[in-house]
Specification:
It is found in: Membrane. With 483 residues, the chain is an all-alpha fold. The protein has 25 helices and no strands.
């Protein structure tokens, strides 16, 4: 699809909704607001512009037409009500959201991993230790991702920026090349292990995937429930531990690398580590900073909020010259994510305030209200997960569907909404495995040429189903037991 058509599609989606008659039971301004929101979601899926630009355009349009899309006739009739002032306050509300600042801090951590070389060193150390055996190498990749995940909120920065560059050097050591049968020697196995591991770790830790924190903020805005780092970790620990333990072995049997063992990979890793030299003062300082951040995220909730932890640690990095201000200013990925998260959070609050979520939730609940609470919850989780086949972004998925599925669950008698939230939010990371376009790292590994299209769709379905079934069978009883 060319860029002109991708630019036109969001506008057409908005106009189509606007010309459809307002559904019964919904306020006209809420329907118009939804039209603008849908246009933004289409834009996020097709990406004619960066996500931050699309979000900014969306809230600008909504705020500009504030009296028609943001406020009911009753609000506009109130004495002293200033729609233009209130529309602007709504438009910028997301930029003061604590979650946005936590994400920005975490992105800066990822930048420090890259600049100091610590991320690459960790990967090479594990490859050198476990690389003699191909199965053990798969575990080395998975363990590397797990170690880096709590501190790198961008799965792209972690997997595509740190792990993939190391992996890309390994297949040539065995004459395993992309786009021909030699990739089966070891290349397909390594690349598939990379995307499997980042899909698991993105769900394992709250701070391992940016849309995780977007989802938490949306939940807080819509239904008033706040999820802490430790609570998320305690919920995901059993299922993700099982997945981290089993997935490399399952991958080893499904991908079946022709090369089972060799000394070439550890030898190469050792040479690369020699080039890096001994652990630098900056790397040791970064280890100290990220350890402090993790401890404060887990244990410091009574004394300091998680977003403030991020800001304080970033400030310490600047004071110690671990990073410079220019490093932060030039971190385009962080500023882009900062902007589109802030705008999507504002949209989530607008959908809730307008009454659209409540209306749509009631509409869905009519069809599943006769199910038992547990069956209804499982059905909603499975539908939410399966719909990712239609999305090319975890962020777009969460922004488009999470408010609707929260609204649906809230109208089903007997569902414990807190349990439901704890079970639905971590699904985002697992979704990155299902298609070659499911998430940004998916596209990177697919583009390597080592994973044929047919192989990806087959393995994506198998692992996607494996992740979902494991999550449901382990996490549902676990959540019921610990809550």
């Amino acid at each position: 699809m060319n860029k002109a058509l991708r630019c036109l599609c969001p506008i057409l989606a908005t106009l189509i909704i606007l010309i459809i008659p307002v559904p019964r039971g919904l306020e006209p301004h809420a329907w118009r607001f939804f039209a603008i929101f849908l246009g933004c979601i289409v834009g996020l899926i097709l990406e004619p512009l960066p996500g931050g630009a699309i979000g900014l355009i969306g809230i600008s349009v909504a705020a500009l037409f504030g009296p028609y899309v943001l406020f009911s006739s009753e609000e506009l009739a109130q004495p002293g009500f200033k729609p233009t002032v209130n529309a602007f306050e709504w438009a910028v509300s997301g930029f003061s959201n604590p979650t946005v600042w936590l994400i920005f801090g975490a992105f800066t951590f990822a930048l420090a991993y890259d600049k100091t070389g610590l991320g690459k060193r960790i990967a090479l150390l594990l490859v050198r230790s476990l690389g003699k055996n191909t199965l053990a190498l798969g575990y080395a990749i998975t363990f590397t991702d797990t170690i880096l995940a709590p501190f790198t909120i961008s799965s792209t920065a972690r997997s595509a920026g740190i792990i993939y560059p190391v992996l890309s050097h390994l297949p040539p050591l065995y004459n395993s090349r992309p786009f021909d049968s030699s990739r089966n020697k070891i290349g397909t196995y390594l690349m598939w292990t990379g995307i499997v591991s980042t899909s698991i770790t993105s769900s394992f830790f709250m701070t391992a995937l940016a849309p995780n924190l977007l989802s938490i903020s949306m939940v807080n805005k819509i239904i008033g429930i706040n999820i802490t780092w430790l609570e998320w970790f305690m919920v995901t620990l059993p299922a993700c531990f099982v997945l981290i333990t089993i997935s490399p072995l399952l991958n080893y049997h499904l991908c079946k690398p022709e090369i089972k063992s060799s000394t070439a990979i550890p030898t190469w890793a050792n040479k690369e580590l020699q080039l890096l030299g001994s652990l630098t003062a900056k790397e040791m300082l970064l280890i100290f900073f990220v350890t402090c951040a993790l401890l404060l995220w887990i244990l410091g909730g009574k004394f300091i909020t998680p977003p403030l932890v991020g800001i304080v640690v970033v400030s310490a990095m600047l004071i110690s010259q671990l990073l410079t201000w220019n490093d932060i200013v030039e971190n385009k990925a962080a500023w882009n994510i900062f902007t589109w998260l802030a705008t999507l959070i504002a949209f989530a609050s607008g959908l809730n305030k307008s009454g659209f979520i409540n209306w749509f939730g009631q509409l869905i609940s009519v069809y599943i209200i006769h199910f038992s609470p547990l069956a209804a919850m499982i059905l909603l989780l499975c539908i939410y997960y399966s719909l990712h086949y239609f999305f090319a972004s975890n962020t777009a998925h969460a922004a488009a569907l999470l408010p609707i599925f929260l609204g649906a669950a809230s109208h089903i008698p007997g569902i414990n909404i807190h349990h439901y939230v704890l079970l639905i939010l971590p699904l985002l990371g697992f979704m990155g495995i299902v298609t070659p376009y499911a998430a940004e790292p998916s596209a990177v590994y697919y583009g390597s040429g080592f994973i044929p299209n047919s192989v990806w769709w087959r393995l994506g379905f198998i692992f996607g189903l494996f992740f979902l079934v494991t999550w449901l069978f382990i996490s549902i009883p676990w959540v019921l037991m610990i809550s």
